[in-house]
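Lab notebook, bench 4. We co-purified these components, and the gel suggests they stay together. Before we commit to crystallization screens, I want a quick structural picture of the whole thing.
Request: model the full complex, all chains together.
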Amino acid sequence: MTERDEIIALANRLRWEVGGNFHDSLMESLYKEASEIVKKTVRKKGGEFAFSLDRKIDKIVTNKWTGFPIMFILLALVFWITVQGANYPSELLSGLLVGDLYGFLKSAFISLNIPGWITGLVVDGGYLAMAWVISVMLPPMAIFFPLFTLLEDFGYLPRVAFNMDSLFRKVGAHGKQALTMSMGFGCNAAGVVATRIIDSPRERLIAIITNNFSLCNGRWPTQILIATIFIGSLVPAHLAGLVSAGAVVGIAVLGIVFSLVTSWFLSKTILKGEASTFNLELPPYRPPRILQTLYTSFIDRTLIVLWRAVVFAFPAGLVIWSISNITIEGVSLADYFINYTDPFAMLVGLNGIILLAYVVAIPANEIVIPTILMLTVTHFGLQISGAQAGVMFETGSMEVTKQILEAGGWTVLTGINLMLFSLLHNPCSTTLFTIYKETGSLKWTVISALLPIAMGFTVCFLVTQLWLLL
Amino acid sequence: MNKVVPDCENCPVHNVNNLIKLGIDMSSYDYVIALAGNPNTGKSTVFNALTGLHQHTGNWPGKTVTRAEGGFEFNSHKYKIVDLPGTYSLLSISTDEEVARNFILFGQPDVTVIVVDATRLERNLNLVLQVFEITDRAVVCLNLIDEAERNGIEIDVRTLSKELGVPVVPTVAREKKGITELLKYIDEVATGKYVCKPRRIKKRDKKLRQAIEVLKYKLNKVFPDLPNLEWVALRLLEGDQEIIKAVKSGEIGKILQSSATSINRESYSGEIKQ
Amino acid sequence: MDPLTSLILFGVGALILVVFFLPEKGLYYRWKRALQSTERVLIEDALKHLYDCEYRQVNCTLQSIAGNLDIGSDKAAELVERLESLRLITTENGNLHLTKSGRSYALRVIRVHRIWEKYLADETSVPETDWHSQAEIMEHELTPAQADELAAKIGNPVVDPHGDPIPSVDGDLPGREGVILTNLKENDFAVITHIEDEPKTVYAQIVALGLSPGMQIRILENSPTRIVFEADGDEKVLAPVIASNITVKKIFTPEEIREEFKTLSVLKPGEKAEVIKISNALRGQQRRRLMDLGVVPGAEIKAELENPFGDLTAYRVKDTVIALRKNQTDHIYIKKVEKTNNE
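Here is the predicted assembly.
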């Protein structure tokens, strides 16, 4: 035994003598010292009036009657500003990137005599997917997160966790999951990173796995489009807007329900246990530095979206172009897949095209709709002005989109199922990558991917079969 | 004898080899500063004020979770500054705390700046005192002093500095108030012009006291230059795995100034074996 | 396929999954458990039982082994023979004794068991009533080296969460101090040092009462039908059969006797108190974190806010506001500073 091992052995022996719980006395002595110092150096003139403003705000935002309305109004406001505010810049970006720049690149490639397949692969595939992700994702991200950050800086978010904790405690989760969940409405990857504020590993894993049930910015446009086309058209025109908005909110609320139910399920099965460590500090309110926050948060998000577009969406675009343009014996790879999976997809009320779109759009959910439209037109050989076989596109008008989808065999049921499946499927690859980085475990990454898919297929299956039965 | 006196007056004391292991490249810097503090004390704002960077800071405990680095120059010295994760303590073995603690212990920063919230001094001092157990070279940044004043809290900075044995600088980091003074003290401590005598806990339970003494005696024999024997002894008693490993491998003996006389510890421990 | 058929097929599929994978009761788990009761498990359980007899200084027989391991007496006889041939035990007038190697083997198993319990208690959120049963499985699966590694990871603990000492690597185990709860007289003060975790149902009852090692009790009544005592301020009643599973250490010096106090959970918003003690039921990381946040004995604490559901309260302690759940505040003992202090 070396001298060093002897020290360890001695320490182990002494630990017996000192007794197990001397951490307590250690902390007590530290605090005793601290309070002695404070007594000598700090004078409080404020008395009970100190932080009285904080207390007044707290009384209101955590009150039984006003707490929840304030919370809902604030969150609804954030979402409303995001959805409304993103419209115009999205169109602008889309016109610029998907319209002008795309046209320019294409003609430039052609005039440079670059082989057609390279032009297709790079411009129609990679570039277009990238352009789509930027125009769909950048505006809402750049609006949602700065707003959310303002609430955070002010100190309001911990109060949301404080209000919501009861629900989460009952399903075996941490109150702070309310925040990571809200964060997920912006971007699931950001929501997963935010789970770091939960310091007990079990509850943190639950928050990570269930974050996907928060409908993220990348999926809002799909929901709104499909709801308008298929749900809104079920009712008289003057109610259409309201009903389709209600349907989207319904899906988001359903996501919260799934999030809670899944947390509960995980607490009862693979992540069995009771809520362990819980601590939530309610910091003093501080006036946020609005301009600086908006600026830094805006830059942060823009960088993330751009990074994601290049790293994940570009390759996805290459794949999408390839599968619909590479043919074997005259049939494209996409068609093989569609024909092969169609019977199964029909069972869950979807179709092969949707399944394929979700497989190739794993890197970025924003391109699901353009991919579906492209595949539908190509697969059925439809003649649509402005659409070109094998190239992703989105039509400017709802009517044309509706025509294409109906020609592809879509019904109201398909629409409902697509909305459900858009909520319940594997997280996008950015989120999966983040989950892997945060948990450091392949097992939990796989579970986070497969659990929602299994739930999605089950829910869609039940909805379809019951719908057909009734 | 627990205190290591540098060979020269203003030599850096940080441990270059360990810093490289911790992922910090010191090749173009003179000194390394660690920034520690409770969550939500404006630590990141202080970091931004010192470096001119724009790291997002949030009013939410536990915002900075990854380590941020930056650099600045003051008094013609080049400083690297490392923003450690915000922690309530260094004793509870969470990942964040381990990161912060290991950096202070093994990286041996030339100065550890502890950011404290002036409105919540007592709770924050807990961490300050814990940092003092590990390192001698510290500056306390008494941030949010404006908020404290607004709420009728008056702090006697001079007495506080005397009680703690290190410089205490009141700041309002978001308005960049007090930052120049903070820089001045960082520089003085780093260059050895200001010699800190951090306050350490003396009163302890008798049984514990004895156990610590026995361990200290043993430790001192094997690692005669160890600057924080008492702390290491306490960690061993608490069964801190990281420290046990470091003692077992002899790694702990290497956390000395790179400038200190190096002794071949292997042969040395062989000699004194009874 | 018509919808009805597919729905029925789905239902059947789901049912099969449930039958197989229902936690604890599912066929898969039953099958896994059945695989685990191999010879090694029987041997180790028998040794543990014998060690326990030795520790409690009672005689162990073939019958007691059969009863304890829940096996037939034929099988028990076979097992005893096997143990003898391995020189782990000796027989003397029907009484079984451990040999030296038998004892050290038993201690190794006990060490793993208690380390695992400590690990579950401190580092995971597995409910208290499941600690023992999970440790019963792990004690046969971990190698001593793995156990040592785990012990090191959780700070080489010296006692398990029930108050039992954990044998050291060399097999040292201090004798158990104290007396059985039923032996105390009225008005005796004592501290709980140990709670036996077997049988499970009895242990669950004790846990349900909120008793844990380290608690101070005072006997109010001790009759053949029931034992009434005060534990950390609350009155508890136990049947003697159950009380005999609790070991206590008597306190004689009055300084050690704590005055009556309440738990933090009774504090209403606006009321102030002083923290007296954090119960041992709050362990590991949770306990440390509480202390990090300033909840230490001697600290002044004031209930400040309740959440809209009324089940989460925020407290002001050392100038910070911290929300704590009821399952935590139930285990923090306080002394009220002022009777009422409504703002």
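DSSP finds twelve helices and 14 strands in chain C. Worth comparing against the SEC data before the next meeting. Chain C has a mean pLDDT of 82.
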